[in-house]
Amino acid sequence: MPVRPRSRQDHRAGHFDQRGAQRVTDIVDEDLAKRLLPLEGGVNFRDMGGYPAAGGRHVKWGHLFRSGSMNRLTEADRTHLDQRGIRTVIDFRTESEHAHEPNDWGIALGEGYWRR
Question: Which of 7, 42, 47, 69 has the maximum number of C-beta atoms within 10 A of its C-beta?
Answer without folding.
Answer: 42
